Amino acid sequence: MKTFQGAVAVITGAGSGIGRALAIELATRGCDLALCDVDDAGLAQTLVLVPRGRRATASHVDVAELGEMTRFRDEVARDFGRASILINNAGVSLYGRFDEVSTDDLQWIMGINFWGAVYGTKLFLPMLQREKAANVVTVSSLFGLVAPPLQIGYCASKFAVRGFAESLRHELAATSVRMTVVHPGGIDTSIARSSRRGAGANAERHQRDSKAFSKSLVMPPPKAARAIADAILRDQPRLVLGMDARILELVQRFFPARYFNVLKPIMDPKGQFERKARAS
């Protein structure tokens, strides 16, 4: 893909954060937009911010529900007749140790983070394959590269998304559809503040840790959106966003089995993870 002019971009999770910033960035560069989210108020605000002169639609869609995603696909086909870019961006976070999260918690996060990306790609791929040039952007995470404690559900979903997207990229290598897997580090979104607490996780600890983690989310979403848009035009297969993510990725590459021990003095200087692991 050499230009966004005249392209149709489908973006999930467009009601805030990276999804909203991508909608604005791609519209500014010439895309029409098919947007979805479960946050109707946020989605409406995104529409207000889309530059004039571009066509944009908004749909209430739970990406974890195949029926709703099928309806969304049908709406895009009816309203635009095509799709050039699919951005699997919708995502949520889950806090707690493995013994603190329920199977319902894990099914919930996998439904949105993993199955949402699978459903979106499965349903929109035929439309993308009719384009002379198309791209699927799947948003994984820094925690799709490294796996800290207390994020077991989130890490499981984001590692799964990464594996799915990388394998599909190899399958599509000889086609007109390119794949870009994005691993954001500390992007200033609400994902930490709105994280779901595992069924057995301590509420006070969850609030304290979410507040502390939010302080590391510093990159503005518009900056992330510009980098993702540039990666699409470069047919870049992997984008690691942020200096924090790039440093941790390098440490993981050099110490694949011991990277957490290497990073522990930085990530956990006061030994909080150890105390939490021992806590009943």
CATH-scheme architecture: 3-Layer(aba) Sandwich
Which percent band covers the strand fraction?
A: 15-25%
Low-confidence stretches: 276-280
User: How many domains would you count in the coordinates?
Assistant: 1
Adjacency order of strands in the biggest sheet: 3-2-1-4-6-7-9
The run of helices and strands is EHEHEHEEHEHEEHHEHHH
Helix-residue proportion: 40-55%
How would you describe the oligomerization state of the chains in this entry?
A: single chain
What does this structure look like?
- This protein has 280 residues and is of the alpha/beta class.
- Helix 4 (103-129) packs parallel to helix 5 (152-171).
- The protein is 49% helix and 15% strand.
- It has one domain (8-243): Rossmann fold (3-Layer(aba) Sandwich), CATH 3.40.50.720.
- The protein is built from ten helices and nine strands.
- The strands form two sheets. The chain has a seven-stranded parallel beta sheet, sandwiched between helices. Strands 5-8 form a two-stranded parallel sheet.
- The model is unreliable at 276-280 (pLDDT under 50).
- The chain has helices at residues 17-28, 40-49, 66-79, 103-129, 152-171, 203-214, 221-233, 243-254, 259-267, 272-278; strands at residues 8-12, 32-37, 56-60, 85-88, 94-95, 134-139, 177-184, 196-197, 238-241.
- The chain is globular.
